Amino acid sequence: MSIALWIVAGVFAIGYIAGGIVKLTWSYEKYAAKLPWAGDFTPGNVKFMGIIEVLGGLGLVLPGLLGIASVLVPVAASGMALYMAGAVTERIRRAEYTDLLGDLVFLVGMLFIAWGRFAIIPFN
Asked: Is 124 among the domain residues?
């Protein structure tokens, strides 16, 4: 089970970090042209989302890898689950049901990591 949790955390961490870097490095106009939902938010909000994604992605793996404050792994997963619940809510609000599945996958993945690291196989 620990291997599965590491794999899921690593894959989702890469996804969050990559998405966050895109939000932080692309101009708001370029990002909003590619992803229309961004038009509902200010440029500062989108940059803040990028920061949250990068920090959340790092929080999914770094504490466990370094063995320093490893309790932060399930805390980061819980925080990112809340973040993804907001993304799911936004998709439903905008009636973007085709894109909803990806957000739900990320939400379930974060809940799996939080449950696994809090209850099943916590770091020692």
From this structure: no
